[in-house]
Specification:
Length: about 110
């Protein structure tokens, strides 16, 4: 048995995390996502799967490439949220991420160095 195998997921901060080390999605995460969509044009969602370290996340990318990522309570919740917000949603493992996101991140890095 591994070092953490006997401890179980309930022993971690945040309660039952189904074997990840991450915290659960909270109401503030959903509020942030809703605000991001409401204040930007052309937003698309990219669902990122749960890993051993992080819970399922959704990455939102605006038309100009600006992006944000928040935890979400599973892929089904991400898809429902996207439907409710009226934005397209993709599986990040299948489609990858749009070039405009990488371009925006590169511009932000350059601006910080100036």
């Amino acid at each position: 048995m591994g070092l953490f195998g006997r401890r179980g997921s309930k022993g971690r901060a945040g309660g039952d995390r189904r074997g990840t080390l991450d915290r659960a999605s909270v109401r503030e995460d959903l509020g942030h996502l809703e605000q991001f969509v409401a204040s930007r044009r052309g937003v698309e969602g990219y669902v990122e799967p749960r890993t051993a370290v992080t819970e399922t996340t959704i990455l939102l990318v605006a038309a100009d490439g600006e992006w944000t990522r928040r935890r979400i309570d599973g892929p089904d919740v991400a898809r429902k949220l996207s439907r409710d917000l009226g934005i397209p949603v993709y599986d990040a493992q299948v489609t990858g991420y749009p070039q405009r996101m990488r371009d925006w991140s590169a511009r932000q890095k350059t601006n910080r160095l100036d």
